[in-house]
TrEMBL record:
This is NAD-dependent epimerase/dehydratase domain-containing protein. Coiled coil: none annotated. Signal peptide: none annotated. Pfam families: Epimerase.
Length: 412
């Protein structure tokens, strides 16, 4: 449904007003900080600080287990997850479904496309038996006709999560169907990539976004469509993620080079900061939004961990997880003549956010512990046999040659 720029701005301002910058001086924020990691470097709520060198240790097993079991609402809900069939976001729907099922909720996962397609042979889709064995329902179809895909008519879902659409054309049919069907809560997986570059990192909810981004148009449409009435909406903006079942390379890119004794080429000086979040943190934030729909209503949440990591730091942490040494080679993409987007899995800039709104509004706490999580990921990587496969590193070799490094052997 089209609406004027003025109406869009007004509705967005209203919807986003409650997630503007949150002061760490509030009692609830102080309580959260006592039970979680120290704030990130350059945090507006904590800069400067003398304890930046302190690293968070792994949470006790009991605390981590308790944090993962976030949905304990007395009234169980029926939840529909419209899940993408490609890209890194597919694993979000998988983890979210598992968490909801473990808490006793009814879950249906509608995956885009055909169950018999080759995509369904890859994780996380190849692990959907974990959902059905826990009582979940999995179906395949076209989100543009979501009603027919889930059995026709106004299915009695309490919550709908769109984890598929990246623009208004894709999301509008699902959102319109949900509203017409009387769904009480509509959740949308957006992206932290919609923020404009800033001279004052990190990104926090309420920062300027790119007007041309498809996710922005979706958030504004939801703010208008679900304003008032008995239904609510919320948007969650993830960034880079890790976790079992992810089918988009993140830590694997580093492991591929480290286990073969190859240098790891990193654009720039390697001090660029970014977020890498375990997908369980994304699913736990979603689950809390389901448990507390009133608290989540009309808000956007940075769906990220509460720690940043440098690009060089990611290489070193991956090497430590693999029990190996690492040689890092820095380069200027323009001087070398390569596209950094093709040669490196992360943005060549400071690109990280803080989850302030989720901590304040939902009482959420991160459990991501990158050094420990990478050990688990490396164990899975090693078991997969990927480290023994033949691989070509043509772009790497071009970079290494340009900076005076003899290209390393590609042999495993």
């Amino acid at each position: 449904m089209a609406f004027s720029a003025a109406a869009a701005a007004a509705s967005t301002a209203t919807a986003f007003a409650s997630v503007r910058r949150i002061s760490a001086s509030s009692p609830s924020q102080q309580q959260m900080l006592r039970h979680s990691a120290q704030p990130l470097p350059f945090s507006r709520s904590a800069f400067p600080r003398a304890v930046a060198a302190k690293r968070r240790r792994a949470a006790p097993a009991a605390s981590r287990a308790a944090a993962l079991s976030t949905v304990r609402a007395e009234a169980k809900k029926s939840v529909l997850i419209v899940n993408t069939n490609s890209g890194g976001h597919a694993v979000i729907g998988f983890y979210f479904a598992k968490e909801l099922l473990a808490a006793g909720h009814a879950v249906t996962v509608l995956t885009v496309g055909d169950e018999a397609s080759d995509k369904m042979k890859k994780p996380p889709f190849s692990r959907f038996s974990e959902l059905t064995s826990a009582g979940g329902t999995t179906v395949w179809g076209d989100p543009a006709d979501v009603g027919a895909a889930v059995g026709g008519g106004a299915a009695p879902f309490d919550v709908v999560l769109d984890n598929n659409g990246k623009d208004l054309d894709a999301v509008r049919p699902v959102a319109d169907w949900a509203k017409a069907s009387g769904v009480g809560q509509f959740l949308f997986i957006s992206s932290a990539g919609i923020y404009k570059p800033t001279d004052e990192p990190p990104h926090v909810e309420g920062d300027a976004v790119k007007e041309s981004a498809g996710h922005v148009a979706v958030e504004r449409y939801l703010a208008e469509q679900f304003a008032g009435g008995s239904s609510s909406w919320a948007s969650l903006r993830p960034q880079y993620m890790i976790g079992s079942g992810n089918n988009k390379d993140c830590e694997e890119w580093f492991f591929d080079r480290i286990v073969r004794g190859r240098p790891v080429p990193i654009p720039g000086n390697g001090m660029q900061l970014t977020n890498i979040t375990h997908v369980r943190d994304l699913s736990s934030m979603l689950a809390l939004a389901v448990e507390n729909p009133a608290a989540a209503a009309g808000k956007v949440f940075n769906c990220v961990s509460d720690r940043a990591v440098t690009l060089d730091g990611m290489a070193r942490l991956c090497a430590a997880a693999a029990g190996a040494a690492v040689e890092i080679v820095h380069y200027d993409p323009a001087a070398v003549g390569v596209d950094a987007k093709k040669a490196f899995p992360f943005r060549n800039m400071h690109f990280y956010a803080e989850p302030r709104a989720a901590k304040e509004a939902l009482g959420w706490a991160s459990t991501t512990n990158l050094p420990e999580d990478l050990k688990e990921r490396y164990a899975e990587y090693a078991a997969s046999g990927r480290g023994e496969k033949d691989m070509a590193f043509d772009l790497d070799d071009k970079i290494l040659a340009a900076v005076g490094k003899a290209p390393a052997s590609v042999a495993a």
